[in-house]
Automatic annotation (TrEMBL):
SUPFAM superfamilies (UniProt xref): NAD(P)-binding Rossmann-fold domains
InterPro entries assigned: Ergot_Alk_Oxidoreductase, NAD(P)-bd_dom_sf, NmrA-like
Protein name: Nucleotide-diphosphate-sugar epimerase
Pfam families registered for this protein in UniProt: NmrA (PF05368)
Coiled coil: none
Residues in NmrA-like domain copies: 2-243
Species for this entry: Streptomyces badius
Gene3D superfamilies: NAD(P)-binding Rossmann-like Domain (3.40.50.720), UDP-galactose 4-epimerase, domain 1 (3.90.25.10)
PANTHER family documented for this protein: PRESTALK A DIFFERENTIATION PROTEIN A (PTHR43162:SF1), PTHR43162
Length: 282
C-alpha cells in the first residue's frame, strides 16, 4: 500500500491518479470532498497532519509514503515522519524544492524546507527527496488578467526559469515510489528549457489565438500584491526568490524526467495548450 498526501494539489493529485491506475492507493485528506481521484482501489482517510490518530489510521499497513507539506510554521514533516517511523513505513518520498541544494538560496521558505528535509533524515525512515523547479501551473494565477483584459502582469519579465510541468514531477515521484534503489537520494527536476514570463505570455497568446500584452510589475507593486495574500516572511521569500531568478539562478536544465520516466519533460507550450481552457475568455 502507498499513502499519498497533498492529493488535492498540483502534484499530489497527479501522483494519486497515476498510482490508482496501476493498483490500490490510500489518500490522506483534510477535506475528502475535494479529492478528485476515485475508484475501486482508492481509499480516502480523513485527517490532518496534526491529528495523530488519523495519521496512525492512514499509515496502517503502508509501505511507502508520498509527503507534501506547505505550512511555513507547523512541524508537519516531523509529525508525519515520526508517525511513519512508528508505523513501520519503509520509504518516505518528500516533495521538496530545488532551491534547497543551492547555497545562494537563503530565504525563509527555502530554510524551512531544509529543516523539513533534516527532520525526515533524522526520523530513521528511508527517504528520497524530489526537488522540482517552479511549477508551470503557477502561471494559472495570470488567468483572471488574461480573461478580463488580455494582460499578464508579473515581476521581472525577462528572468529565465526552467519551470516544470507538475505532471512530470508526479511521474518522477511515482517512479521513485514504485522503483528500487532510490533511498537516500535527492532528485532535482526541471522542465526542458529556461523560459521567461514574457516568452510564456507569447506562447499563451499563440495557444489561445488572441493577442496578449505583458506588463512588468514594479517591485513595490509586486510586494504589495504579495503582502495582501501572504505573511511578510513568505512574501519576502518570494521576492528574494524572484531576485535569484533575475540573476539566472533558476535557468539550469536537468535531465531527471527523461532518466527516471523514459519520456522527455513537457514544454511550457505543451502545458499551456493542455490548460488553455483555464485562460480562455468566458
Amino acid at each position: 500500500m502507498i499513502l499519498v498526501t497533498g492529493a488535492t494539489g498540483a502534484v499530489g493529485r497527479e501522483v494519486a491518479a497515476l498510482l490508482a491506475a496501476a493498483g490500490p492507493v490510500r489518500i490522506l485528506a483534510r477535506s475528502p470532498e475535494r479529492v478528485t481521484v476515485r475508484g475501486d482501489g482508492v481509499e480516502v482517510v480523513e485527517g490532518a497532519y496534526g491529528d495523530r490518530p488519523a495519521l496512525d489510521r492512514a499509515l496502517r499497513g503502508v509501505n511507502s509514503l508520498f509527503l507534501v507539506t506547505n505550512s511555513p510554521t507547523e512541524p508537519d514533516d516531523e509529525r508525519v515522519a515520526g508517525a511513519a517511523s512508528a508505523a513501520g513505513v519503509r520509504h518516505l518520498v518528500k516533495l521538496s524544492m530545488m532551491a534547497v541544494e543551492e547555497p545562494g538560496a537563503d530565504d525563509f521558505i527555502t530554510r524551512r524546507q531544509r529543516e523539513n528535509e533534516e527532520a525526515i533524515r533524522e526520523s530513521g525512515v528511508a527517504w528520497t527527496f524530489v526537488r522540482p523547479r517552479t511549477f508551470m501551473s503557477n502561471t494559472l494565477s495570470w488567468a483572471p488578467g488574461i480573461r478580463s483584459a488580455g494582460v499578464v502582469r508579473a515581476l521581472y519579465g525577462d528572468a529565465p526559469v526552467a519551470c516544470v510541468d507538475p505532471r512530470d514531477v508526479a511521474a518522477v515521484a511515482v517512479a521513485v515510489l514504485t522503483g528500487t534503489g532510490h533511498e537516500s537520494r535527492a532528485y532535482a527536476v526541471s522542465g526542458p528549457e529556461a523560459i521567461t514570463a514574457r516568452e510564456q505570455t507569447a506562447q499563451l497568446s499563440r495557444v489561445l489565438g488572441r493577442p496578449l500584452r505583458f506588463e512588468e510589475l514594479g517591485l513595490d507593486a509586486a510586494r504589495a500584491a504579495l503582502l495582501a495574500k501572504y505573511p511578510r516572511p513568505v512574501a519576502d521569500a518570494f521576492l528574494e526568490s524572484a531576485e535569484r531568478q533575475r540573476a539566472g539562478a533558476k535557468a539550469a536544465v536537468v535531465p531527471t524526467v527523461q532518466e527516471l520516466t523514459g519520456h522527455r519533460a513537457r514544454s511550457y507550450r505543451t502545458w499551456s495548450a493542455d490548460h488553455a481552457d483555464a485562460f480562455a475568455a468566458g
